[in-house]
Amino acid sequence: MPIQAQESEFKGNPILVLTWGPDDKYPMKMGLSKAKKALAAHDLLKEFVHKHKDRPRNAPPAQRTEQRQDGSRDAVYRDSGGSYSR
Q: What are the tens digits of pLDDT across the range 20-62?
């Protein structure tokens, strides 16, 4: 499905709105600064997508770790409510 782009405005500044079509629930909006950053990171974005292309769409989030004051690391998991817990 081709991506669609539409120019818009936010607080007097130009923005670009990217969607998969009119029914897209989560359009991606960016101003000029983020668009420049995305262009500069083009190869990194392609690499990222290629690396994770086989991950199932609704896969559980990866485990996250936090560093304790003593320097050791502790695993932290996202619960069903979206917050992290130990």
A: 998 999 999 999 999 999 999 999 999 999 998 888 877 666 6
Distance in angstroms (rounded) separating the CA atoms of residues 52 and 3: 20
Q: Kindly give the residue spans of alpha helices, DSSP state H, lying in 1-86.
A: 32-40, 42-52
Whole-model pTM?
A: 0.59
Task: Round to whole Å and give the CA distance between 2 and 5.
Answer: 10
Q: Tally the C-alpha atoms within 13 A of residue 14's C-alpha that lie toward its C-beta.
A: 8
Map residue 71 onto helix, strand or coil. Answer: coil
Q: Which residues pair with 77 in a beta bridge?
A: 85
29 phi and psi angles, rounded to 5 deg: -115, 135
